[in-house]
Amino acid sequence: MSTAQQNKIAIVTGGGSGIGLAIAGKLVQRQVHTIIVGRDEAKLAAAKAQLGGLCSIYSCDLSQLSAIPNLIADIVAAHGRIDILVNNAGINMKKEFTEVSDEDFERIIRTNLTAVFALSREVVKQMLNNPHGGSIVNISSMASQYGIPKVIAYTASKSAIEGMTRALATELSPKGIRVNCVAPGFIATDMSAKALNNDPERKAKALGRTPMGVLGQPADIGDAVAFLASDAAQYITGVVLPVDGGNSIGF
């Protein structure tokens, strides 16, 4: 029996480091053949070395929208089908609202939203051929749960991701494709550590309104995504699940 028949096939974008790598790790632990997509080939190679034989890597800049149909065609040609898509890749930018240029705004929207739309469309075309359907998990943010200053483009993109999750779930669930979303709270990654450690006031505020009082771990997001992508969540669609230590309900 080929690997394609034995194992579910997943794509995780931005899977070379941080939360994406943790998600890929949790899927691999569950015997899902996980394809990580990213721009940095060295990072992807290091991730594959860590994840082992159930991991494949594809280098692609998803902001180059014209590359996406060929990427998905190549993956399907090599692996037979796609069962799970995790839209994790995203970029952020911290700037005063009045200093954000049209180009700045469009760059964030292109990577965080338009690329997610285009990738999901191409993957769904393939998933519709799967007898067992498929599962899409999008990654949102606390920025879509409440207002955070100086991240206007990022906030717009992540709020749109949550709306798109609900719209896609309603349209695709009758066809056997579930669509859900995870909204991470403040998670301890290299990127967030740098941001929070450089801004003690922001760090104190983040932890102060998190009832559990600690930063989350990338593995916490990985577990939530792996659950929503799995058959254990077969009756769950269209939800936005905060994984945030209570941050979104904290005072």
TrEMBL record:
Check the record and name the InterPro entries matching this protein: KR_dom, NAD(P)-bd_dom_sf, Sc_DH/Rdtase_CS, SDR_fam
Q: Which GO terms describe its biological process?
A: fatty acid elongation
- The Ketoreductase domain sits at 8-185
Source organism, top-level taxon: Bacteria
Give one GO molecular function term: oxidoreductase activity, acting on the CH-OH group of donors, NAD or NADP as acceptor
Q: PROSITE patterns of this UniProt entry?
A: ADH_SHORT (PS00061)
Give the similarity note. Answer: Belongs to the short-chain dehydrogenases/reductases (SDR) family.
Name under which the protein is recorded: NAD(P)-dependent dehydrogenase, short-chain alcohol dehydrogenase family
